Fold this protein.
Amino acid sequence: MIYLDSAATSFLKPPAVYGAVGRAMLQASSPGRGGYRSAMKAAEIVYRCREVAAELFHMDDPSRVVFCSNATHALNIAIHSLAAPGRRVLISGFEHNAVTRPLLASGAQIRVAGRKMFDEEDLIKDFRTKIDGAELVVCTHVSNVFGFVLPIREIAALCLERGVPFIIDASQSAGLLDIDMPGLGADFIAMPGHKGLMGPQGTGLLLCARTGTPLIQGGAGLDSASPTMPEDLPEHLEAGTLNVPGIAGLLEGLRYVRQRDPATLLAREETLLGELLRGLRPLSAYKLFENRGGGQCGILSLVSDRMDSETLAMRLDQHHIAARAGLHCAPLAHESAGTKTMGTLRLSLSPFLEEEQIERAIEALRKII
């Protein structure tokens, strides 16, 4: 199988990730639930993963790295902490349902800025115009549909200048783009463990500049006599038993990303994306959503004038190529791009792919039309 759906999950992992999950299931139990050997082994895995994540994201305090089950879980904690009924929230025109649905559920008043595809200048201008009166800004770093890299540093600077809290969705950027938590000045940055960080499904991280409000309540492994959650991070936001096997795999994924360097991994994806674009541009039956000025992160969406995206994905599957079709849980992004009625076929890349696999995917798309 040629796997072109890494924007959903990095199905291809470093070999050390698989081994770490198995070892943790055999050797580690629950952190903070005892002083015996397997509990201490679990605590060691969990703390080391926090440390490596903090180092990767330029944070001094590992306790401000909170484990979640995915980026959606992390975003719900962040939004639950800062959004409220009637609160004015500014978002980009490329947000995922993991942002828009929790905001709607909170009763916040949502305003959208920046609807032009691959136009950083317009997006910054629109945010600058609309940020006055905003009480919270939530923005994705990279569009999960189109790979559009949003000017997150400029948006962060606007938020700092106006004193507006800021939440970043780093679901498609973590592991590929440099994320400097203190440098950005964001209140929260949410990310999955199972995409660019190469960890298993069921893992995620929330980087916290503030303590936040617990989304769920329960045991935290300490201060059991208290009727409320512990006041300090990370336990304040981590009710229940942690996914230790998943965190063990995530630790190895983070180590891989640090050793290879995100810039190197991104360069590899950019090379593959360039090959894909060169092969598909001559095929007039496809409309490609590409940023010819650069600033596209390992994701290419396309539509065909001959068949819908779901049929196209089904035909690719017959060639043993995995790709995703539809709205990709981001109807707002499709509304911005004018593709909400038909969706797109999304080809999302991985550093583990080979040029020969890209050539085979191009040939399959040529044969299908």
Q: What stands out?
A: The chain has a mean pLDDT of 96.
